[in-house]
Amino acid sequence: MQDRALPAPFLKWAGGKRQLLPRILQLVPARIDTYYEPFVGGGAVFFALAAQGLFRRAVLGDANAELVICYTAIRDQVDAVIAGLRRFRNDPDAYYEVRAKDPARLSPAARAARVIFLNRCGYNGLYRVNSKGAFNVPFGRYRRPLICDERKLRAASQALRTVKIVAGDFGKLTAKAGPDDFVYLDPPYVPLSATSSFTAYAGRDFGTAAQERLAEALRALSARGVPALLSNSDCAATRKLYQGLDVERIRARRAINSVARRRGPVDEILVKVGVGG
Within a 10 A sphere around the Cβ of 139, how many other Cβ atoms? Predict the structure, then answer.
């Protein structure tokens, strides 16, 4: 038992919530029937809740199909994913060879291994695609990246064992949420500058219209009495979007940015609906 790792994120992810976890966990309901997370990303909040056994069921989703396939393969085929990762090496030629492969031609386990390898060895842990949906992050030149963390992958697989994982729209995913459930919304943030946006990670932009629709969805959850929490950047646009709701400003350190000097502390917001104080 002492060798069993607690469930934790197995991917580096822009906007990961590890720093905000202490405050987020203070706001989570004491008992959750079904936990919904439509923008799962690196899954820091999900894995923290799973480690504490705070929900009966969970539904995770994302617009990034490769990410959904990766989570599903970790849940259902972790042995095959681990076997695939063990064949990779931290080498630029190998990296670009794997990056160039068409994921649609690979098995789910091989696709998951490819995503994890590119994430561990790519520049600054970014996940970015071009207009054609092709992953285009350059080699990261890390000395000894841990490509295959078997203990972490197996812990994640166990945490995901009974979880429903879907690709699709955040509105549809949370449509059945009720007062005994809890919804955490962590969308691509409203960018603070032209160079700080990570909204194209799913091959399409999560722009102004999507942000407005998300704000409407949060208000709809509030009207149904569904406890919910949303995180986003602190800027004029988000303050306008969530005007009238319970908005808390919180300090965080930006861990992933293409410009090193912009990885310092920034203000973010937590929008609270029927949770905490």
Answer: 17
